[in-house]
Each structure stands twice: as C-alpha cells, then as structure tokens.
Design goal:
The complex is a heterodimer of chains A (about 325) and B (about 260). By secondary structure, chain A is mostly helical. Chain A folds into two domains: about 20-235, no CATH class; about 240-318, no CATH class. Chain A is about 75% helix and about 0% strand. Chain A has 14 helices and two strands; from the N terminus they run H-H-H-H-H-H-E-E-H-H-H-H-H-H-H-H. In chain A, a hairpin with a 4-residue loop joins strand 1 (about 145) and strand 2. In chain A, helix 2 (about 25-45) runs parallel beside helix 7, helix 2 packs antiparallel against helix 10 (about 205-230) and helix 3 crosses helix 10 (about 205-230). Chain B has about 260 residues and is of the alpha/beta class. Chain B has ten helices and ten strands. Chain B has helices at about 45-50, 75-80, 95-105, 110-115, 120-135, 155-165, 185-200, 210-215, 235-240, 240-250, and strands spanning about 5-15, 15-30, 30-35, 60-65, 65, 80-85, 170-175, 200-205, 220-225, 225-230. The longest helix of chain B has 17 residues, at about 120-135. Chain B is globular. The two termini of chain B are about 30 Å apart. Classes of the chains: A mainly alpha (about 325), B alpha/beta (about 260). The interface between A and B is medium-sized, with 28 and 40 residues. The complex binds adenosine-5'-diphosphate (ADP) and magnesium ion (MG). Magnesium ion binds near residues 43, 44 and 86 of chain B.
Chain lengths: ~325, ~260
Amino acid sequence: MLRAVIGIALAAALVALPHGLSFSQQEILVFLTINVLLVASYRLLTLTGEWSLGHVVIMGVGAYASALFTKQLGLFVPLSMLLGALTAAAVAWALSFPLFRMKGFYFLIGSFAAGEIIRLLWKRFRDPFGGPKGLKGIDPMPDFSIGFYDFDFFEPVSYYYFAGTVVAVCLWIMWRIEHSPVGLTFHAVHWQDKLAQASGIDVRAYRTRAFVIASGFAGLAGALLAHYIGTINPNSFDVEVMVFVLTWAIVGGTATFYGPILGCVMLTVLNEIVLRELGFEQMRPLIYGAVMILSILFLPKGLESVVERLVGPRRARA
Amino acid sequence: MSPILEVDGLTMRFGGLTAVDGLSFSVAEGVIHGLIGPNGAGKTTTFNAISGFYRPSGGEIRLRGQVISGQPMHEVARRGLVRTFQHSTLFAELTVLENAVVGTHMVHRPNLLAAVTGSDRAARAEARERARAALDFFGLAGQENERAGDLAHGHQRALGMAVAYAAGPQIVLLDEPFTGMNPEETRAMMVLMEKLRDSGVTILIVEHDMHAIMGLCERITCMSFGKLLAEGAPREIREHPDVIEAYLGGTHHAA
Ligand SMILES: Nc1ncnc2c1ncn2[C@@H]1O[C@H](COP(=O)(O)OP(=O)(O)O)[C@@H](O)[C@H]1O
Ligand SMILES: [Mg+2]
C-alpha cells in the first residue's frame, strides 16, 4: 500500500518534472533518462561478478545498428530501436566466446580491447559506419498522438516522456529478472562459482546470459540516444563515457538495484546544475575522478549504503 | 549390488607431483563408503577429479557405467553426483534459505521468460519448499533468514550438506563434513547421514574423525601417497597392518 502511494507520487513527480526546467535542462533530463538505463543495465552485467569496460561500446552498437536500420532499410524508428537492441545483444553473445575464457582482471582488459576493436571498425569503414565523422541526419522518432497527449519530438519534453516510458519498462524487466530464480543464480555465480557449479549451474552460460541481456538494454539506450541527437560518431562511445558509467556505479554502489541509478542522478545533478552554473564544465573528467576517489575512500559502499542505513535493511530474493 | 561409482586407474598429476596414482575402487549403491588416508594422501584431489572440478590426467570414472571423467562439474552434478567442499564453501552473502534454493537449481531450472512474466510462481514456491525441507533435514529450519556467512562453523558445514541435498543427488561426496563440529553435533550429523543413506542416497565420505568413519561406513578405502593401500570393512581396515603403518609411520595426524 505504502509502496503503491510512493510509486504513484514518484511517477507524478517525474511527469511534472520537465515543466519546471529550462529547455537546455530538459535536454539534459533526456540524456539522464537514457543514462539511467545504461547504468542499470551495467549493474545487471556486474551481477555475475565480471566488470566490463566495453559496455558503452555495446551501447554504441545499438546506436549504430538502429541508425543504420532506418537509414539503409527505411525501417520504422521504434522497430529499428528494438532491432538495434537485439544487434547489441547478438554482438555481445559473439564476444562472449573469447571473453568468457577470461575472468576478473583479464576479462576487464579483454572487454576493453573488444570495445576498441569495434570502435576501430566504425572508424575504418566509411561505408556503412561513416568513418571518424560517424552518422549524421539519423531519422528522428516520428511524431504521434495518444489522444490526450501529442508527441512532438522536436520538443525534449515529448522525447523525455517517450524515453522515460521505455526506460521504466526496461527497469521493471531488469528488476523482475534480478528478483527471480535467474537473478539468484547470477548472485550465486558471483559469490561462489565453485559451489554454483557443484549445484549443477553452468557458470559460463549464466555469465553469458547476464552479459547478453545487459548488452541488449545498453543497445536500446544507444538507440534512444541516436534518434534523439541525430548524429553519432565513434567518440560518442569512447572510454571517457565508460569512466562516467563506472563512476556512477561505484559512487552509487552496486549492491542494490537503485544504487547505480542514484549515483547517475546525483552526479548528473552535480555536474549539470552545479558545475555548469559555476562554469566548471570543462573539468568534468577531473571532478568525476576526484568524486570517484573520494567515494571509494569515504563511502566505499556507495550512496546506497547511506539510504540503506536510513531506511533499514530489507532483503528478499528468489 | 552393482557399483554406482567406479574409479578406474585414476591418475592426477600437478606438474611433477603425482597426487593420485592409478587409484581404483568402486562404491556400491546405497552404502556409506569411507575414503581415508594420511594428510596429503590425495583424497581431496580424488574428489576433485571425480566431481569434474579437475580433468584427470589418466584413468576413467564411471557413474552407473557411464563415463563421466572429462565432463565439467555442472554436467557431473546433473547426472546425479553432487559434492561438498572441504572448507566451508557457501554463498556467504546470501541468506541460508537462498543458499538452499540455489541447491534446487537442477530440480527447478530457472526460466528467464517465466521470471519476467511471473508465470513461474508455482515453481518458485516448490523450490522454496524443497529448500526448506533440506534445511529442516539438517536442523537449520530456524535460521533461514540469517546470512550464511554469519552461521557458526558447524552450521555452515550442515548448510553445505543441505545445499547438496536440495539438489536431489543419487550420490554425494562429502569432504570432511565433521570439521568444526563438537562431538554432540558430530553424533547428530552421523544419524542424519544414516537417514540420508536410508532414503536411497549413496554417500562417499572423507573424514579424519576415525571414530565417526568406523561407526558410519559399511566399507572403507584407504589410500596413501596417491595409491590404494587397503580396502575392506571397518574392522579389516582397523586391523590392516599397512594402514596402521601408514598412520603411525609418517605423521600421527590422520586426515
Ligand atoms: N591444485 C594443486 N596443485 C598442486 N598440487 C596440489 C594441488 N592440489 C593438491 N595438490 C597436492 O596433492 C597432494 C594431495 O593433496 P590432497 O588431495 O589435498 O590431500 P588430502 O585431501 O588427502 O589431504 C598434496 O601433496 C597437495 O599438495
Ligand atoms: Mg583434503
């Protein structure tokens, strides 16, 4: 009951939110919404214990694929977004064969290398990826109406509602997965892969599963981004963005579902509202680095640990 | 009765060291079978090779006549052979109940689509029931919601066995299950093992508590320096000159 009330209040606040913001803040809100999906999918990937440095490139795979599906095949934008997500998942599946021969640090480095190879392919092949300049003039979402609201995608508010709905559905699916026997198995694989195997769990198959699902959602985030900004290039998905994702996840904490989302929201607010107003925008990487180090030193379990202490422990899986 | 498990010329080498050297023995169905030997004799290595954690350097292992050597551990588990680990190996961060639910993995395979749509409700409830029954069997019913890593050492051993039991195995391999238990807990655990055996589960057990081994096992295999030393009923093993020699000759510590 209480949860339903909180949920409705939160939804109402999220619907009302853009109306109190300036145009440029509304645009930032759209990026934030997409980044929430990106970082939440990243946490799903880390559930089995492997941290990837290729997640942002996988997001880019979704972005490129979705853009190309509309450009080259003239597909309906929402459909190409879905296909973009599936392409990202398929690429992740293919990459899982070499990558999941590695664990821990080697996996980290392997995933980085795989991502750089993909970025090189984008740069190298002007056709179809547009080379270093990337793709321009990507089709926007076509406007449509649902009776009481007209989506006009020239307005960031409309795209915010659209992306927000997609992201909400994705978060719901990821939440369901984590709080299911499949999610429990992910945790089991993370905490004790030997015992998991002795219980009949195909550890590698589950690692692959988490990687592929997370990559699908990251790909969808990339597609949402591509059709909003209309232009993407290999540097839109470089390691700097990956460092932002890591910072959100580490600052927020990865023990809970909402931790990384919290980190993403807080740091975006810090960045866009505080830093931009103060004119420190250029120093973003530096400040992110400092925030990451400070949070590792003083808040090793992330912002979520503060919330958990305030709200009190709750836990339920399976 | 036909053997459920046959170890045939098992050899396990680590670099220059031969930890298990042409070991052969078989385990009859429905018995409690002991595997003993001095510290470093190769018992844990033998378990690791049987359960698929290691790929044997030589020899063959058969479960109900089918070759399982070379299969990965989860495949061996799926065929009905489940092992526990020498040191308490648990999902320390998960609750006691969650640990046991993971144990039911093979019985109630998680399904991704059903997990999202929620159509696996019945299966989830069954898995929890099965997990609770396993906890109940090993006397952990009151501790379901505790974090597994917070349990007392003896209870952690019991939970390790409950996780294996929840998997519904035909044969379990227990590596030093009584470590960390007081004499009373050990006695209680011995009764449970007999109950487990009577329910049709074959047990292969490594244990250094000689009193427990002699009391529990119908048959005992003794190994030393990776080789078979003697095999027989507890009385024969106790009086076997080579066994006495092996235990008294090197270290006094029997493991
Ligand atoms: N992974 C390994 N790598 C190298 N040597 C090992 C490994 N595992 C076990 N050994 C060696 O094999 C021998 C047998 O060990 P083990 O099977 O643990 O004996 P036990 O369980 O009978 O005490 C020991 O000499 C041990 O050092
Ligand atoms: Mg041992």
